[in-house]
Task: structure prediction
Amino acid sequence: MVKKAISIIIPLIIGILISYWIFNRNENKAVNTSGDVIIERIKAVKKLVVTEGQFSEVYNYKEAQKYFYNLISFEKKALLLVKGKVLVSYDLEAIEYEVNKKTKVITLTKVPEPETTIEPSIKYYDLQESTFNSFSPEDYNKLNNLAIKKLKEEISKSNLYDRAEESLERTLGELQWVGKELGWKVIIKSKT
Result:
């Protein structure tokens, strides 16, 4: 009877100790984080955003290191979801114009080229790496740059710039209308 009780109590005590160790081993970890936000520059800008686009792309990356005449291969793979908010704007400070107060004529002589701002968001999915071919911080930077480059290529193929031109023409038409309502004439000599 004593042997039966000991054979039950000893595994029970061992189980309690193992459970205590498993659930309390994370209590000894101390995580310290710190960060400082530094404002580098604040600048007043006068920009007219005429078009905003949302782009999404799934980017698949695969790299293999091969050894012994390609008999042994160590691969790493990544699946990225790249989203980008793209803004096409015109710098209003770069517009060149002439004002004739006597004749009440404003002449826009030069409208600058459009500026493109991309706000990318990159999320990594399905990272697979081998022991001998793993992702380094440089690899992540390279992947980010490749994904943004691919996004820029897709933006250039899209009709975003055509829509921006149309939107600018509408805005300049509204400027002419407002000028006419105020007794001024707005002449647009050149869009770029």
About this structure: The CA atoms of residues 126 and 156 lie 28 Å apart. The chain is about 35% helix and 35% strand.
